[in-house]
Known about the structure:
Elements (H helix, E strand, L loop, with lengths): L1 H28 L1 H4 L22 H8 L2 E4 L2 E4 L13 H9 L3 H7 L2 H18 L10 H13 L1 H4 L5 H21 L7 H16 L4 H18 L11 H20 L6 H16 L18 H8 L11 E2 L4 E6 L2 E6 L19 E5 L2 E5 L12 H5 L7 E3 L6 E2 L3 H7 L3 E3 L4 E5 L5 E8 L3 H4 L2 E9 L4 E9 L13 E8 L4 E4 L5 E4 L5 E6 L5 E7 L7 E11 L5 E11 L2 E2 L3
Antiparallel strand pairs: 1-2, 3-4, 4-5, 5-6, 6-7, 7-15, 8-15, 9-10, 11-12, 12-13, 13-14, 14-21, 15-20, 16-17, 17-18, 18-21, 19-20, 21-22
Amino acid sequence: xxxxxxxxxxxxxxxxxxxxxxxxxxxxxxxxxxxxxxxxxxxxxxxxxxxxxxxxxxxxxxxxxxxxxxxxxxxxxxxxxxxxxxxxxxxxxxxxxxxxxxxxxxxxxxxxxxxxxxxxxxxxxxxxxxxxxxxxxxxxxxxxxxxxxxxxxxxxxxxxxxxxxxxxxxxxxxxxxxxxxxxxxxxxxxxxxxxxxxxxxxxxxxxxxxxxxxxxxxxxxxxxxxxxxxxxxxxxxxxxxxxxxxxxxxxxxxxxxxxxxxxxxxxxxxxxxxxxxxxxxxxxxxxxxxxxxxxxxxxxxxxxxxxxxxxxxxxxxxxxxxxxxxxxxxxxxxxxxxxxxxxxxxxxxxxxxxxxxxxxxxxxxxxxxxxxxxxxxxxxxxxxxxxxxxxxxxxxxxxxxxxxxxxxxxxxxxxxxxxxxxxxxxxxxxxxxxxxxxxxxxxxxxxxxxxxxxxxxxxxxxxxxxxxxxxxxxxxxxxxxxxxxxxxxxxxxxxxxxxxxxxxxxxxxxxxxxxxxxxxxxxxxxxxxxxxxxxxxxxxxxxxxxxxxxxxxxxxxxxxxxxxxxxxxxxxxx
Length: 574
């Protein structure tokens, strides 16, 4: 009861904060404040920062013909400006107003693409430039737009006449002043950091007094020191956040250098920590582990970022501040979530996946988490975030963390995580020829009175992953059969994995031209059930899961093992 009351109090505190933010934002967009965003118009863009995001000239051609493939959705405008039509998809609208798609026009490198970019920017200025409201002026979207307009100012201004040139710079200045006034009060997390990055870009790319650059640099450093953890992870614990932030920080570092300005030490330190962290979350096929909001990986994006990583050694195995562990040998990679939930303010994408793990061998994934469908229907998100969608254990089919599902709350906050493990203990148990850890969380103690402890050991040059899942009462009290001790340990299989039975009735995990693994368990007979993999590049895919189901009053500890029996189709010595 006390925990429930605490969670409720925390939730409504967040609601009050967000309501106040939105009220302040409406006030600052009104006529009383709007005069503050007027002022001197910059004379020119001094430098166009680089953009590391992938560009496709074909998309520029699609946009020219009125087809906008944004945020996983294709919208045809029928000859109208995209800013004139009402598209109900919120993600598509945010991407449209963020203008990152300008990079495709620059990649096309044609006068036609430049003219189209200029026409679309002109449309936005005419329709939204003087109306500070709606999705177009959400601070996070405004930050993306400022960065995109600066990065691709060369293509937007190519062949521009003076009236458009001045209108572009005037609108850019208004957006910068607006974002500067909003940044400090933005909700915690990636968007607020991006706002500070955008303001630093602006101070470097446009004529500005030295005090403006000093202020932007100081504020950026403060936000980086707060949001980027000591091991390079982000406070949201989402691997995708590391990738997204690096895609902005690396060009910003280059822009400081191009302008002969000294970047803040916080920026240099953050990049130096985040590049190894990105490699920590990376499987050998280049994809990122599916934890806490991570969906499908676009491999080329990661490769582009990691070209800037000068530390060519093996990834770290221990990320205690982010709350993850990694085991790696013999071409086998295991990544596990061993951390507390992120702060509630940045938990909109967080999952209830404590002690979940993923296993890949070579370039093939075998054991995975379901991940999320990044651009899919919002109603599937709660399923993807539940503990049952992860390769870990549930008790009574209940998640180890709680989420807010109130429609009134979600309209303001999304769906934050409002309850979960309060203590997660983790210890490495590496030995010669063995990598491993033991971790334990108390997420099920308040409701069911159980601690979940998991031990994973990778040995024999990566050929054996041995696991142990243990369920105990705090203080080692006796476990009674009270109908609330039903345990399900899940191992979700990647959709590309075939599941067979050998002559000994053991489950064999195979894939074309890849390793074969045998799953065995000691105390409980494994079962096979249907599953769903949300993180496919083409959307959700059907898959299967291996399940160990039992009562803790009958079996309090289960041992299981995955053994590699062949490598890429060739027999291996046993």
